[in-house]
Specification:
Number of helices: 2
Number of strands: 35
C-alpha cells in the first residue's frame, strides 16, 4: 500500500513539474514606449496567455489598465505583465511637450578644416548614447561628442538612444570672405522641423485673390529625400478648388542682415506662383517691409522676380527686377538669395538679389532711418509657399495636373559677417 502511495506521489510530482515547464514565457508587442503626458498607448501580450496581471513601477509617471498605458507626468516607469512565474516588461519614457529627453546644442556648427568642437548634450534618463556622422569624409565625431572637421561640406551629427535621436549640422568651410554660416535647415529628416517652421492654414485668398487652400497634410507639405516638398493639387477642399502649402519662421528663425539664400527646384505650369521671401517682424504689411527673394510665375517662364515692398512703394514697382539669365529654371535646382548689408554705401543699407551667385539687382536705402522708405533694418522671418492663381499667378492652366506640381527646397541658409 505504501508503495502505491509513493507511486501516486511521484506521478503527481512529475505531472506538476511538466505543467510548470509547459507554462509559456510572456512576450509583449513592445519593450520601449516614448509618450507625452495625457497620451494613451496599448501593450499586448503576444499569443493567448490567460490571467495576465499588469502593474506599473511608478503610477505617478504612467498607469496601466489591462494593457492600456496612460502617461501621467514626465519621468520613467516600468510596466510589467505577469502570470504565474512568467513576466515581461516595457520601459515607458514620458517626455515633455517638445520631446526633450535628449538634447544637443548647438543645432548648427560652422567650422574650418582641422578644427574640433565639443557638443553640449542632455540625457534625462541616463540612457546609453551613440554618436554618429552621416558624412565622415567631412566630419567625424567620437563617443564623447567631440567633432573633427576634415574637408568642406555638410555632415549631420546624430545622437541616439534606444528611445529616439536628435541631430545637429556641422558645416565645414561654408564661408564667403567675411561671412560664415549661422543657421540652416537642410531638410534631412523625415518631417518638417517645427522648431524652425510653422505651417499656415487657410484659403482666404491671402490678400492676392489666390485660389488655393493651404494645408499641413502630407499630400501638400512633407520632407522627403533630403528636401522640403510643397505640392500644389487640383482638388475640392474647404470650398476651394486647389490645395498647396505655406510655412513661415516667425518667432523661431529671424535675421537682420547677411546672405539669405535657398536652393530650390521650381515647377512648371500656368497659374503656379512659388515664392521664397521675408517679412519684418514688427507691424503689419507694408509697414513691416517685404523682401521677395524669389518669385516665379508659371505663366511667364524663364523669369525670376526680386522685389522690395515698403510703405512708399507697396507695389514694389520701383524696386522689382527680373532675372532672365536661366533657360532651365523649371524642375532644376538653383540658388536664390539676397545679400543684405548694413550702412554699406554712405551710411545706407544695400540689398542685392542674386541667382547662383550672379547679382542681377542692387537696391540702396533711399532715406536713412525712414521706415516708410526703408524698413529693412530689423529682423525678418522667412516664408516659403506656392500659390495657385491670384493677382500675380494669373490664369490657371487646368491641363497641368496630370503629373505632380512640386516645389522642392534642398536647403535654406543664413550667413553673416564675422564680428
Amino acid at each position: 500500500m505504501h508503495k502505491i502511495c509513493k507511486l501516486f506521489v511521484c506521478i503527481a510530482a512529475i505531472v506538476l513539474a511538466a505543467c510548470e515547464k509547459q507554462e509559456a514565457p510572456i512576450v509583449l508587442n513592445q519593450t520601449v514606449l516614448q509618450m507625452k503626458p495625457g497620451e494613451l498607448q496599448t501593450l499586448e501580450v503576444v499569443g493567448s496567455v490567460p490571467n495576465v496581471e499588469w502593474t506599473s513601477s511608478n503610477p505617478d509617471v504612467a498607469t496601466v489598465y489591462y494593457g492600456v498605458v496612460t502617461a501621467q507626468a514626465i519621468g520613467k516607469a516600468i510596466i510589467t505583465a505577469s502570470t504565474g512565474k512568467q513576466s515581461a516588461t516595457c520601459e515607458v519614457f514620458v517626455t515633455g511637450s517638445d520631446g526633450a529627453t535628449l538634447r544637443i546644442t548647438p543645432a548648427l556648427v560652422s567650422m574650418k578644416t582641422g578644427e574640433t568642437f565639443q557638443f553640449s548634450y542632455g540625457n534625462t534618463y541616463d540612457l546609453e548614447l551613440t554618436w554618429s556622422s552621416d558624412n565622415e569624409a567631412v566630419a567625424t565625431i567620437d563617443q564623447n561628442g567631440l567633432v573633427t572637421a576634415h574637408k568642406a561640406g555638410n555632415a549631420t551629427i546624430t545622437l541616439a538612444t534606444n528611445v529616439g535621436s536628435v541631430t545637429a549640422i556641422v558645416a565645414v568651410e561654408h564661408t564667403w570672405g567675411a561671412y560664415h554660416l549661422v543657421w540652416s535647415d537642410e531638410f534631412d529628416g523625415s518631417a518638417l522641423d517645427e522648431s524652425n517652421w510653422t505651417p499656415q492654414i487657410g484659403g482666404n485668398g491671402w490678400g492676392n485673390q489666390e485660389a488655393q487652400y493651404y494645408t499641413n497634410r502630407p499630400e501638400n507639405l512633407r520632407v522627403e529625400d533630403g528636401c522640403l516638398v510643397i505640392e500644389a493639387r487640383k482638388e475640392q477642399y474647404e470650398a476651394n478648388e486647389y490645395t498647396s502649402a505655406r510655412i513661415y519662421s516667425k518667432g523661431k528663425r529671424e535675421f537682420t542682415y547677411g546672405k539669405l539664400e535657398a536652393r530650390i527646384s521650381l515647377p512648371s505650369g500656368g497659374g503656379l506662383w512659388p515664392a521664397f521671401w521675408t517679412l519684418g517682424n514688427r507691424g503689419g504689411w507694408p509697414n513691416c517691409g517685404e523682401i521677395d527673394i524669389m518669385e516665379y510665375v508659371g505663366n511667364v517662364p524663364n523669369r525670376i522676380l526680386g522685389t522690395l515692398h515698403t510703405i512708399k512703394d507697396k507695389s514694389g514697382s520701383r524696386s522689382s527686377r527680373a532675372y532672365t539669365g536661366l533657360t532651365n529654371i523649371e524642375n532644376n535646382f538653383h540658388v536664390y538669395g539676397v545679400e543684405w548689408t548694413c550702412e554699406e554705401k554712405n551710411g545706407k543699407d544695400v540689398i542685392r538679389f542674386y541667382v547662383d551667385d550672379v547679382v542681377y539687382s542692387e537696391q540702396v536705402e533711399e532715406v536713412i532711418d525712414d521706415d516708410e522708405y526703408w524698413p529693412f533694418n530689423r529682423p525678418n522671418y522667412f516664408i516659403i509657399n506656392m500659390a495657385v492663381g491670384g493677382t500675380l499667378g494669373g490664369r490657371i492652366d487646368d491641363g497641368i495636373w496630370a503629373s505632380p506640381r512640386l516645389m522642392k527646397v534642398d536647403w535654406v541658409r543664413v550667413y553673416q559677417r564675422e564680428e
